[in-house]
Amino acid sequence: MADPVRLRILDHLKARFLAIQEGVDDHVLTWNVVVVGVLDDIDETMGNALAIMEGNEVKNEEIGFVRCDLRIATEFSLRTELGENNSQAANLVMADIYRTMRSDVHATVSTSPLCELTIDMREVSNDLDLENTSDRGFVSGVVVWSILYRHQINDPTKLFGE
Is beta strand 49-61 parallel, antiparallel or unpaired with respect to 33-36? Predict the structure, then answer.
């Protein structure tokens, strides 16, 4: 069975974040761990960690297709060095996440013919958690997104028009 469009979108986002390299195209970090799902304690000890978590989805049936509004959260955690400004680090990471998500709002897949998995991606909200210990800092946060896409009326594995 083919993967649902929703899963193809999540896999596409994971691959995009894994491809980021610190210093390339002004990115501020390399993600050591990217998961679709929830970060666990081990993931957080691996360095810069990002989770792409599915949330609520609202579906509206139209003529010939279903329009979907999927909420996802990009939750991140990273450790900072002693004396590093945690707020600045968190804001730089959130800007990096925003640039990555918005750089290809159609989640374009280089298949033949070129395939666009989504209609749009928009940031809905974000939240930060900053902590300091005696030797290191810990930064975590979440950016919530609305992802709009369509699939065929009777088959969530096929894009509208596929």
Answer: parallel
Bridge partners of residue 22, in order along the sequence: none
Domain that holds residue 34: 5-159
Beta-ladder partners of 137: 80, 132
Strand-pairing partners, residue 35, are 51
Nearest to 54 by CA among 40, 27, 35, 41: 35
Whether residue 67 contacts residue 148, with contact meaning beta carbons closer than 8 Å, is answered with yes
Split into its structural domains, the chain has a count of 1
Q: For the chain, give percent helix, strand, coil, nearest 5.
A: 25, 45, 30
Tokens describing residue 161: 């028009």
Q: What is the pLDDT of residue 101?
A: 93
Q: Residue 153 sits in a domain of what CATH number? A: 3.30.2000.30
Taking the C-alpha atoms of residue 93 and residue 78, their distance in angstroms, rounded to an integer, is: 9
Average pLDDT over residues 39-63: 87
Separation of first and last alpha carbons in the chain: 15
Whether 130 and 137 have beta carbons less than 8 Å apart is answered as: yes
Please tell me the distance from the alpha carbon of residue 88 to that of residue 98, in angstroms, as a whole number: 15
Say how far apart CA 157 and CA 162 lie, in whole Å.
10
Is the pTM of the predicted complex or chain greater than 0.70? yes
